[in-house]
Automatic annotation (TrEMBL):
Family, as annotated: Belongs to the mitochondrial carrier (TC 2.A.29) family.
Top-rank lineage group of the source organism: Eukaryota
InterPro entries: MCP_dom_sf, MCP_transmembrane, SLC25A32-like
Subcellular location: Membrane
Bilayer disposition of the protein: Multi-pass membrane protein
Stated name of the protein: Mitochondrial carrier
Length: 323
């Protein structure tokens, strides 16, 4: 069907309301998973072993209250502009080019039903289109700098290195990031989707019929959701860590610290507090890929760091079985 003027207005209003609600919770989730909190000692510039002095945040709720206390509402809405631009752009792209008369149900935990190969192609295409925006969004959330909503060029100078601005395609070469994202997509499309349609076919139908679902099917899908959570949550944590890891021309200076690059001669205003909201790894010692990131997180911070906010992943898997 063709979308009329009032349909578009309603669509934009709906998206704006959803973002007003979702952006703060997403921003807190990104910071909670990105927060670097090693258990052991580390070496200072003189080679002396010293304990880690960064913030220790042990829960999603604690991170939420910390962000609000240190940065207020402005901090909770960091990442709003790149999220809004990406959401509106992808919505227009889907409406205009991807079968607008039969809207596709698509989310992080559920790809549209177009067969396994078609769904894989669609999901990877959406990943390629949205990955640079995802990187910019995550970095804008974790940066200590206060970025203006409409000062795009200053924000890009803070969030991207000179190498990334001159050669934007290097964002796709961020070590391990594409591997983590594609692994997540493959699990959703090849494992989660087919088993959801097999176990809960009534929920996959255009008209959901609860009476057509057995208790055993719900139990089996709950087990599948638990296993999927165990697989997908580490991938999401790793993808968050890798997305905020910036790319420099020199491999020995691959920064994960989100501040204005000194070569630009421009420093962005911060939030006026001496206390960091989150801690980040030393920029001189980056993760080298997906496996290296997983190993270092386990060695330095403990295996449970890979499962931060796992319950949100589990809720996302289950909620998308009903829509």
């Amino acid at each position: 069907m063709d979308l009329g003027f009032f349909d578009l207005i309603f669509l934009w209003i709906t998206l704006a309301v959803v973002m007003a609600v979702v952006v703060p919770f997403t921003g807190v989730l990104v910071r909670f998973r990105a927060n670097y909190n090693p258990k052991g000692l580390h070496l200072d510039e003189e080679g002396t072993a010293v304990p880690h002095t960064g913030p220790v945040v042990k829960s999603y709720i604690a991170m939420f209250t910390r962000v609000y206390r240190l940065e207020g509402w402005a901090g909770l809405y960091k990442g709003l502009m790149p999220t809004a631009i990406t959401t509106f752009a992808l919505t227009i792209f889907v409406v205009l080019f991807l079968d607008a008369d039969k809207p596709r149900r698509h989310s992080k935990y559920r790809a549209p039903d177009s067969g396994i190969l078609g769904t894989l192609f669609y999901s990877i295409l959406m990943l390629i289109v949205s990955l640079p925006s995802t990187i910019i969004t995550y970095r804008s959330i974790t940066t200590p700098a206060k970025l203006g909503y409409f000062n795009v060029m200053q924000a890009l100078r803070v969030l991207l290195t000179p190498t990334e601005r001159q050669r934007p395609w290097v964002l796709y070469l961020t070590p391990g990031l594409m591997a983590a994202e594609i692994s997540h997509i493959v699990w959703v499309v090849v494992i989660l989707g087919p088993f959801r349609r097999l176990l809960l076919p009534a929920f996959s139908a255009p008209e959901m019929k609860v009476e057509g679902v057995s208790v055993m099917s719900i139990v089996l899908y709950s087990v599948l959701a638990a296993v999927s959570t165990a697989v997908m949550t580490p991938l999401e944590v790793i993808a968050t860590r890798l997305a905020i890891q910036r790319n420099h021309a020199s491999p020995e200076y691959n920064s994960v610290h989100q501040e204005a690059d000194g070569s630009d001669g421009e420093a962005a205003e911060d939030y006026g507090t001496d206390e960091d909201v989150i801690g980040l790894r030393e920029e001189a010692d980056p993760y080298l890929g997906l496996v290296d990131c997983a190993k270092r997180i386990v060695q330095e911070e403990g295996v449970m760091t890979l499962y931060r906010a796992w319950w949100l992943t589990f809720f996302g898997i289950w909620s998308n079985a009903f829509v």
